[in-house]
Amino acid sequence: MNGPLFSARDLTVGHHRTVLLRNVTLELPRGGFLGIVGPNGAGKSSLLMALLGFRGILGGAAEVLGRDIRDLDRGDWAGLRKRIGYLPQRSQVDPYFPVTAGEVVLMGRVGHAGFLRSLDDSDRRKAESALRSLGMESFRDRPFGHLSGGEQQKIHLARILAQEPEMILLDEPMAGLDLKWQERLGSLIGDIARERGAGIVIVTHELQHLPPACDRVALLGRGRLLAAGGREEVLREDILSELYECRVRRIVEDGRTYLSPWIQ
Amino acid sequence: MIETALILRETILAAVFAGIGCSVVGVFIFCLRIPFVGVLISHAAMAGAILAQFLHWPELPAALGMALFSVFFVGPLADRTDMDVNVSLSILFSLMMGIAFLGIGLIPEPRTPMLTLLWGNILLATAGDVLVMGTVTLLVLGCLRAGYKEIKTVLFSRTVAAAVGVREDLVFYALLVLSGAVVSVNLNSIGGLMLYSLLINPAAGAYQLAYRLRSMILIAALLGVGAALLGLLCSYFWALPTGASIVICSSLEFALCALLSPKRGRFRQERTDS
Fold first, then answer.
1. How many separate helices (H) and strands (E) can be counted in chain A?
2. Using an 8 Å Cβ cutoff, are A258 and A244 in contact?
3. A130 to chain B, minimum CA–CA distance in Å?
4. Residue A217: enclosing H or E segment and its boundaries?
5. Residue B231 phi/psi, 5° resolution?
6. Which of its termini does chain A have fewer beta carbons within 10 Å around, N or C?
7. How many whole angstroms separate alpha carbon A117 and alpha carbon B147?
């Protein structure tokens, strides 16, 4: 497949009849790294969920991995999602569920193994390799609930790598983590983008969470796409001030972008 | 003692199957974080059986039918009204209670068979009851073995399960159907009002002790069988109501598990922050 990993044209996303996101035109080229940024309630997560079939498409068109997603049935979606790695927001996972870190990573292989078929040695090797690549092999037999928030996120990233996806969707991966883990996960996601070649979409409401490797940015506000394009082209003070509805100052350091309110 | 055990053979077997079946589906319900579905299923099955008594229909299919009818409405009701699933469970629960008490009000005296559905009577379990309970328990264990990896992923997170390509909707509804089947076949022995504790207490107790799902299911099954047999013994030796004895034993088991849990207090210490 040579086309974009996903493309949306005038896409309107909703839940029942409530419109959450309107007329979005956006695409992710193969191997691209797109950051979707906006304040809370902008529709960022809704866009990811629409790309996964968790939210309805009320208008426009969208293709994911070459498939028109408007008319997919549940079986088609299950097949398509095997090719997409998704990290949901932390609130959607029970952190104390009785499972080991290694078992969580193996879950990335469950869809590939097929319904009612056992995971085989190849699945275990892929899970082990994903754990090793993130330096988490010593955590394999530890209860998932005993890991810190940052380590749990890292285990989820290993689950995604074990899945061998063509596209990775990360929904607020650094939210609620301390500064040290924000930094570690940011670097790790940048490494994955460089080394794996899978397209990555990261959703965040904090600009500094965008890893330097993220070369494309889309700004969403109030359920609309405000701007999209190259990082420097989009992350301008005038556009960001409009997005956050207050005058902001942009600070760029070591490839990261920080925002602070403008103080007279 | 052996003679007594032989006389109570069906009762003991019924207690074992009820303990295993209820606690295993209890783990599903507990891990899905919808404990109220246990209340709904048990009371829907009771309402179905009471209606069947009133209409002179066979009880088991009516109980199972009503249990399934109720669980299949939970999702769409929550979805269509944008309410939390526990709120839609509560609404359906009140409907089922209304139907059950309507049946109770309409059925002429004597009401003993109907009261059995409320409180249960494991001492009256027949060989036929044991056969049905055993078959459904084996069915649950068979499904668990066949679909363990899918079930584990769905119980961990329905979102993650869907994201890795599992038909989580099918697995979720299959778990609800299994729960409905277990509750329906145990209704006569344990009773609609008592079943809920045998569904939730062993699972909640096992959660205090287990670090893996497999262990949680095994411990829950042992706790379920333990509560059922211990309750039976208490009832036999002290002439106490059997269903109530089983429920109190399962509650005490939970208290003991919470007391002995290695997770309490140690939990924060064992969290890593490397």
1. 9, 12
2. no
3. 15
4. strand A216-221
5. -60, -40
6. C
7. 8
Query: Residues B154-168: pLDDT tens digits?
Result: 999 999 999 999 999
What is the residue-wise DSSP string for A200-240? EEEEES-GGGS-TT--EEEEEETTEEEEEEEHHHH--HHHH
Q: What is the pLDDT of residue B112?
A: 66
Q: How many helices (H) and strands (E) does chain B have?
A: 14, 0
A110 min Cα distance to partner chain B (Å):
7
CB B22 within 8 A of CB B190: yes
Q: Does A86 touch chain B (CB under 8 A)?
A: yes
Name the residue among A62, A72, A69 with its Cα closest to residue A23: A62
Question: The whole model's pTM is what?
Answer: 0.88
Residue in this structure with the two tokens 């009140």, named with its chain if needed = B94
The CB-side HSE value for A138 (13 A sphere, CA atoms) comes to 3
Q: What is the ipTM of this complex?
A: 0.90
Positions of chain A with pLDDT lower than 70, given as ranges: 1, 263-264
> What's the residue count for chain B?
274
Q: Kind and range of the H or E element at B213?
A: helix B213-238
Give whole-number Cα distances, A74 to A15, A55, B209, in Å.
17, 13, 37
Instruction: Output phi, psi for A129, to 5 deg.
Output: -65, -40
Q: How many CB atoms lie within 10 A of CB B52?
A: 20
Q: A158 forms bridges with which residues in the sheet?
A: none
